[in-house]
Amino acid sequence: MKRTHWIRKTHLFRADEYICSRCGASCGKPYKVCPNCQSEMGKPKYSPSWVDEAEGLSALLDDDW
Ligand SMILES: [Zn+2]
Question: How confident is the model at residue 55 (pLDDT cuts 50, 70, 90)?
Fold first, then answer.
């Protein structure tokens, strides 16, 4: 059986999210057991979604003209 884990998503302007790899539930904290599907969680995986957001931000702030 595949292990379930939290996929951590960080955001520049709001709190981190943890997405259940099994049911896709989103939580504000990496609980030991998913409150939605009751799977036991392994180590959270880091998903650097903030990189995309930071790139979008630097494009907005690009004043190299
Ligand atoms: Zn779940």
Answer: low
Please name which of 22, 43, 25 lies closest in space to residue 35, comparing C-alpha atoms: 25
Neighbours of ion ligand 1 (CB under 5 A): 20, 22-23, 25, 34, 36-37
Rounded to the nearest whole angstrom, what is the distance from the C-alpha of residue 26 to the centroid of ligand 1?
Answer: 8
- Ligand 1 mean position, distance from CA 43 (Å): 14
Do 21 and 7 meet the contact criterion of CB atoms below 8 Å apart?
Answer: yes
